[in-house]
Please model this.
Amino acid sequence: MAVNITKPHMKSELYNYRPIAAKGLQYFSLVITGLIIIFFCSLIQHVVIPMEQRDFSHFLNYNFTKTAAIVFFITGFLIGNLSQLNPCYTGICLFLVFPLTSLIEGTINKGSHNLIPFEFIMYFMYALPSIIAAFMGRFIRRQIANQKEKVEEKVVN
Model:
């Protein structure tokens, strides 16, 4: 009878194992990062929101300006470059506070968000630049790693 003895760390090396909770925590931190970006941009921009539209979803939408879009793009690029998270999930998580706010306000105030599917399409359009930036960051990270491997092969040979 053959006994299969493996080291505990070999499973993580073979399957690139990563605890789901750690990845979920990273994605949750991206949601918080998106909210912090909007708050930071609101402090810088001083956008005036009309009195009849003073709810949280309008606060988010009014403060999503070109400056905020640039900051989201740079954040998506850096996260794509520095982490190994899925770029699509990265971009969506950065903007997840927008649809969550719409859903919460839609359930609390009946009739306030009656076109939620169209709002989700709009929020996905908001997230597209961040998704593209995360893909660009991951692509550049891989190109740099490939260049390092080529240099190391030349040095060895």
